[in-house]
């Protein structure tokens, strides 16, 4: 009996996805809940498991195809073995044996990268002359380049110097939203700098006790989240958004924390951050970061943010102008901590300093409000006791 495998529910406001990768091919045996393929939406990657055990039948939506919610992906021959279905699914004679693996150990039933195929053709190399390093021995472009270099070739073919790859849906969405922010918002950035001495001293004093009690490291981000929610309470327009001819003020702070992943930037949200403790913030950030790196973030994890914090300092950035995350009206940019000479009580001393940047929508946030917000963040970080006393 053939069982249909369809596109699962993708989440609120998401109606279509792109087939990113098939893990099975027609004829392969599959188990219940074994992953068949990955779908890529403009926000997250969705894995599609097999609903039944059997053998892979016809694949209806190939790699790169755009599929809609509940669209047909493939068929599973329920209860069939892989070998039986393979014979039925392919026109080759049932008695035909698979080609032996070449002496290099590379499988021949694996689809090589399109750029690698072209590079092999340009270089005059056969498949068994190249050792693949991709998944299941898949030949990649770099593998062909190494094989060409090993053969003493003095000139690298032009095809190997460039590669044209279609943007992922996530990258397309990032590009669209960032350009939308520039086109629609009256974006402006104001800067300040903060002396991190007090935060670093407090963190060093309590980090071991904090980790022992809460099971998570005490980082800098919890201090920044608390400082921002404190400042947002005083300057609510930075936490608001424009809806037509109305300004929507939020009586809560859903703080998005930008996280870089191999597939692009994602912004998981800390909901009701104004009510969260330091340990709650650190635990949630750790959980979201792990999910982001593993591609397990759900759409709900990234919806509903009212303000964003981006930490370019982890990559060494000294100063930048972060771009708004629409429809939000404010984003704080953190940067690298650098020891610099500063004047304290009339004397020059060396302090760990960080530049802060607040990009804001000037349509609803005035310059005075933006500067005041950044000053309040600075004050809270330079004297964390102010957070405890709501000053």
Structure description:
The protein has 391 residues and is of the alpha+beta class. It folds into 3 domains: 97 residues, Beta Barrel (OB fold (Dihydrolipoamide Acetyltransferase, E2P)); 63 residues, no CATH class; 220 residues, Chloramphenicol acetyltransferase-like domain (Chloramphenicol Acetyltransferase, 2-Layer Sandwich). Strands 9, 12, 15, 16, 17, 18 and 19 form a 7-stranded mixed beta sheet that branches. It is elongated, with a radius of gyration of 27 Å.
Mean pLDDT over all positions: 83
Give unreliable regions as ranges.
Answer: 83-108, 152-156
**Total helix count?**
9
Q: Which sheet architecture does the biggest sheet show?
A: 7 strands, mixed
Distance between the termini: 69 Å
The percent range for helix content is: 25-40%
Question: Might you state the CATH topology name of the largest domain?
Answer: Chloramphenicol Acetyltransferase
